[in-house]
Amino acid sequence: MVEVGCLAYLKKNGRTPNNIRNFDISTELILAFVFVGLTIIGVPLFVSVGLTTALALLFIDIPFTLLAQTGYGSLTPFPLLTIPLFVLAGRLMEVGGMAHRMISIATNLVGAYRGSMGLVTVFACMLFAALSGSGPATTAAIGSVTVPAMKRENYDVPFAAAITASAGALGSLIPPSNLLIIYGLVSETSIPRLFLAGLIPGIMVTILLMITTYIIARRRHYGGDGKPFSFRPFLQATWAGKWSIAAPVLILGGIYGGVFTPTEAAGVAVFYALFVGLFIYRELTIKKIIAALRFTALLTGILILLTPTLAFGQLTAFYDVPTSVQEGIMSVTTNAVLVLLLIGAFYIFIGTFMESLAQIVLFTAVFLPLVTSLGVDPVMFGIFTVITCEIGFLTPPLGANLTVAARISGISIERISVAVLPFILAYIIGMIILVFSPDIATFLPNWLYGEAK
After folding, report:
1. b or e along 333-364 (b: 16 or more beta carbons within 10 Å of the residue's beta carbon)?
2. What is the pLDDT of residues 207-228, one digit of tens each?
3. Measured distance CA(121)–CA(107) in Å, rounded
4. pLDDT tens-place string over residues 114-156
5. Sign of the four-CA dihedral 39, 44, 46, 51
6. Residue 247, helix vs strand vs coil
């Protein structure tokens, strides 16, 4: 993002950490205590970060108006429009009948194996993730159909909800992804390259989740009572859902083919969802469209986090926090693999109580210079970051996907939190594989666009 607000003001006026009132240890402790205290008592995260940032501005004698200017500037980049458009497109496709047909295709493809409906849930979430760009939205869209179906097949309800929550997190990895868009803006990394980089890791994590589901379902004797796989029903379901399957082909094919930008692709996705829902499947109504708009407004309201977190991130950059972190970690180890594993452990911990969007905005500026100095590709680090954020979707007390799954299944988050542990392990294994084999993320973008300079 372009430097605005606090950082621009400081540079324009020749302010440096050496010629203004510096933070001392007591000041840093006060700021840390304020932030942690506000977060613990349940103050919304954007308020906690905002108040902490305002207090930091007071300590270094910077006008508070610059916080508002930074916030305004953080919401002006045109690519941000991509996020509400993709969320709206995904919701329209859900209520317009496209999600239901994707589930039908997945059901006929899987057949009557052990844990078949669980496998269908994971596979359908992977398909729908290519439409919604959001983990919670994917969980809601697919889980509202598959969780009741798993209940009818006598699945343990926490296990069914855990499958849905963990598979729904794929919406943040498989392109288009809202978190990859935010990471691209913050790190100034190509969004099309990030989208392409998420494909192979997304498929890899999908396979790991399906293996986990199958092993547990086989031990507990879930599913396997339906019809075995047959080409005719599968082909019939695929033909009936051809307009649904065409959506990700149109969206991603248009981006990678250079026909339109990601933002334009999001607009095309909304138009396509309206066209198919109104004139092909004829399941969209004015009432459903209004409800989809309301859902989009509520879900994308989280972008308000950009206002205080970007200002706070600029202050950390001004005080050379990234350099201090880099020196501190490199004094322990200069091995890129170990550094990534340490960052991954930190991200997983911080994701238990911090929104993924704020996590990316705050810490990308801190850790990206460190990992790039060790030879890590920024695109690969973006995929790594999003995988750790997906784990955050599955860990209480925040756990956005756990909250959605709890509402769908009608059970407590605590019960789902235990059932989801094997799936968290699957994500951690995927993260470790990516760390040791970074070409998994960089192969496709380097092949299509050439290696980044």
Report:
1. eeebeebbbebbeebbebbebbbbbbbbbbbb
2. 999 999 999 988 888 876 556 6
3. 9
4. 678 888 889 888 888 877 777 888 888 888 888 888 888 888 9
5. negative
6. helix
